[in-house]
Write a structure and sequence with these properties.
The chain has 147 residues and is an alpha/beta fold. It has eight helices and five strands; from the N terminus they run αββαααβαβαβαα.
Protein backbone atom coordinates (compact mmCIF):
# COMPACT_ATOMS: atom_id res chain seq x y z
CA UNK A 1 0.00 0.00 0.00
CA UNK A 2 1.11 3.51 -0.67
CA UNK A 3 1.99 5.81 2.19
CA UNK A 4 0.41 9.23 1.71
CA UNK A 5 0.98 12.59 3.35
CA UNK A 6 -1.74 11.92 5.93
CA UNK A 7 -0.04 8.75 7.08
CA UNK A 8 3.30 10.57 7.18
CA UNK A 9 1.68 13.18 9.45
CA UNK A 10 0.60 10.38 11.81
CA UNK A 11 4.11 8.94 11.72
CA UNK A 12 5.57 12.37 12.54
CA UNK A 13 3.28 12.42 15.58
CA UNK A 14 4.68 9.03 16.62
CA UNK A 15 8.22 10.34 16.29
CA UNK A 16 7.26 13.37 18.35
CA UNK A 17 5.92 11.12 21.11
CA UNK A 18 9.14 9.12 21.09
CA UNK A 19 11.26 12.29 21.29
CA UNK A 20 9.21 13.41 24.31
CA UNK A 21 9.99 10.17 26.14
CA UNK A 22 6.58 8.70 25.48
CA UNK A 23 5.17 5.81 23.51
CA UNK A 24 5.70 6.30 19.75
CA UNK A 25 2.18 5.98 18.37
CA UNK A 26 0.66 8.77 16.31
CA UNK A 27 -2.66 9.43 14.66
CA UNK A 28 -4.50 11.95 12.51
CA UNK A 29 -8.19 12.37 11.74
CA UNK A 30 -8.82 13.45 8.14
CA UNK A 31 -12.06 14.94 6.86
CA UNK A 32 -12.53 15.86 3.21
CA UNK A 33 -8.82 15.93 2.50
CA UNK A 34 -7.86 18.00 5.54
CA UNK A 35 -6.39 17.01 8.88
CA UNK A 36 -8.89 18.06 11.54
CA UNK A 37 -7.18 16.42 14.49
CA UNK A 38 -3.72 15.11 15.22
CA UNK A 39 -2.12 13.57 18.24
CA UNK A 40 0.21 11.02 19.71
CA UNK A 41 0.25 8.76 22.72
CA UNK A 42 0.72 11.09 25.69
CA UNK A 43 0.06 8.73 28.59
CA UNK A 44 3.57 9.29 29.94
CA UNK A 45 3.78 13.01 29.22
CA UNK A 46 0.37 13.80 30.75
CA UNK A 47 0.14 11.03 33.34
CA UNK A 48 -3.01 9.92 31.50
CA UNK A 49 -4.75 6.57 31.55
CA UNK A 50 -6.42 7.06 28.16
CA UNK A 51 -4.39 9.32 25.85
CA UNK A 52 -3.44 6.78 23.22
CA UNK A 53 -2.55 8.28 19.84
CA UNK A 54 -6.04 7.86 18.42
CA UNK A 55 -7.71 9.27 21.53
CA UNK A 56 -5.36 12.27 21.50
CA UNK A 57 -6.14 12.97 17.84
CA UNK A 58 -9.88 12.80 18.54
CA UNK A 59 -9.49 15.03 21.59
CA UNK A 60 -7.44 17.56 19.63
CA UNK A 61 -10.04 17.59 16.85
CA UNK A 62 -12.45 19.00 19.39
CA UNK A 63 -16.17 18.59 19.32
CA UNK A 64 -17.31 17.72 15.80
CA UNK A 65 -20.71 16.93 14.37
CA UNK A 66 -21.59 13.28 13.89
CA UNK A 67 -21.61 13.78 10.12
CA UNK A 68 -17.95 14.82 10.13
CA UNK A 69 -16.87 11.61 11.87
CA UNK A 70 -18.97 9.54 9.43
CA UNK A 71 -17.06 11.13 6.52
CA UNK A 72 -13.58 10.86 8.04
CA UNK A 73 -10.59 8.56 7.88
CA UNK A 74 -8.50 7.82 10.95
CA UNK A 75 -4.81 7.17 10.34
CA UNK A 76 -2.86 5.48 13.12
CA UNK A 77 0.66 4.14 13.23
CA UNK A 78 -0.30 1.03 15.22
CA UNK A 79 -3.26 -1.32 15.22
CA UNK A 80 -5.98 0.14 17.49
CA UNK A 81 -6.49 -1.32 20.96
CA UNK A 82 -10.00 -2.13 22.24
CA UNK A 83 -10.39 1.36 23.79
CA UNK A 84 -9.51 3.16 20.56
CA UNK A 85 -11.60 0.69 18.57
CA UNK A 86 -14.55 1.62 20.78
CA UNK A 87 -14.07 5.30 19.98
CA UNK A 88 -13.85 4.55 16.24
CA UNK A 89 -17.11 2.62 16.44
CA UNK A 90 -18.82 5.13 18.72
CA UNK A 91 -18.20 7.94 16.26
CA UNK A 92 -18.87 5.72 13.24
CA UNK A 93 -15.56 6.51 11.56
CA UNK A 94 -15.84 4.41 8.39
CA UNK A 95 -12.19 3.86 7.52
CA UNK A 96 -8.97 3.28 9.46
CA UNK A 97 -5.52 3.17 7.91
CA UNK A 98 -2.96 1.42 10.11
CA UNK A 99 0.80 1.75 9.78
CA UNK A 100 1.60 -1.63 11.23
CA UNK A 101 0.23 -4.52 13.25
CA UNK A 102 3.35 -6.62 13.80
CA UNK A 103 4.26 -5.00 17.12
CA UNK A 104 0.68 -5.20 18.36
CA UNK A 105 -2.44 -6.69 16.83
CA UNK A 106 -5.42 -4.73 17.98
CA UNK A 107 -9.10 -5.16 17.26
CA UNK A 108 -8.90 -5.08 13.48
CA UNK A 109 -11.17 -8.09 12.99
CA UNK A 110 -13.81 -6.52 15.23
CA UNK A 111 -13.62 -3.25 13.30
CA UNK A 112 -14.07 -5.13 10.03
CA UNK A 113 -16.97 -7.12 11.47
CA UNK A 114 -18.64 -3.81 12.31
CA UNK A 115 -18.29 -2.59 8.72
CA UNK A 116 -15.19 -0.42 9.11
CA UNK A 117 -12.76 -0.47 6.20
CA UNK A 118 -9.34 -1.37 7.61
CA UNK A 119 -6.12 -1.06 5.62
CA UNK A 120 -2.70 -2.06 6.94
CA UNK A 121 0.31 -0.43 5.31
CA UNK A 122 3.14 -2.51 6.86
CA UNK A 123 5.15 0.74 6.96
CA UNK A 124 8.76 -0.34 7.62
CA UNK A 125 9.79 2.85 9.49
CA UNK A 126 6.77 2.46 11.82
CA UNK A 127 7.71 -1.15 12.53
CA UNK A 128 11.33 -0.15 13.18
CA UNK A 129 10.35 2.67 15.55
CA UNK A 130 8.09 0.39 17.61
CA UNK A 131 10.72 -2.38 17.73
CA UNK A 132 13.31 0.14 18.94
CA UNK A 133 10.94 1.51 21.58
CA UNK A 134 9.85 -1.92 22.86
CA UNK A 135 13.48 -3.02 23.15
CA UNK A 136 14.44 0.17 25.02
CA UNK A 137 11.41 0.38 27.32
CA UNK A 138 9.64 -2.99 27.62
CA UNK A 139 8.09 -2.21 31.01
CA UNK A 140 6.51 0.99 29.72
CA UNK A 141 5.24 -0.81 26.62
CA UNK A 142 3.67 -3.57 28.70
CA UNK A 143 1.99 -0.95 30.88
CA UNK A 144 0.53 0.73 27.82
CA UNK A 145 -1.01 -2.47 26.46
CA UNK A 146 -2.20 -3.65 29.87
CA UNK A 147 0.26 -6.52 30.44
Amino acid sequence: MNVDDFYLAAFQEAEKGYSEGGIPIGSVLVHQGRIVGRGHNRRVQNGSAILHGEMDALENAGRLSASVYRESVLYTTLSPCPMCTGAILLYKIPKVIIGENQSFMGSEDYLRAQGVIVEVLNHAPSIALMEKFIKERPTLWNEDIGV
